[in-house]
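[Meeting: bench + compute handoff]

Bench side (C.D.) handed over the final construct sequence. Compute side (W.E.) agreed to return the predicted structure before the next meeting so the bench team could plan truncations. Sequence as handed over:
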Amino acid sequence: MLRPILPIMLSLTIAQSALALPHTATQGERIASINVPVSDLDLQDDADVQVLLGRLERAAVKACGGNPRFHPSYDLVPRYTIQVFRSCQHDAIARAVATIDAPKVTVAFEAASKQAAKDGWAHLTHSSDAAPKAGT
């Protein structure tokens, strides 16, 4: 008697997990807002642009739910979960870059996005400011 119920329960669990995933914001919808300091950076300096992209990446990870491997849906649909998180993060950074409206930042973001896509979206930046520091 339990065997016919098990596939139905599993289907419901997968559907519930998919619904619980963070989603990318539609136009005008705000998921989360995180302040990213910019005033200490010279956005004409390549090194500072990379620092900013690292800060934006960390903020996007936080705003989009953190590490997808800790999300309940990861065990059932890991690829989809990672895809949704990465899409959220990329869209969040793209919106921030558009808001900042600094040509060097835009060019660096586009280049980093292309490289990240080639590398399998491990990280958008490779600067020392891109990875969260211990305790942050």
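W.E. noted at the follow-up: The radius of gyration is 18 Å. C.D. will use this when planning the next construct.
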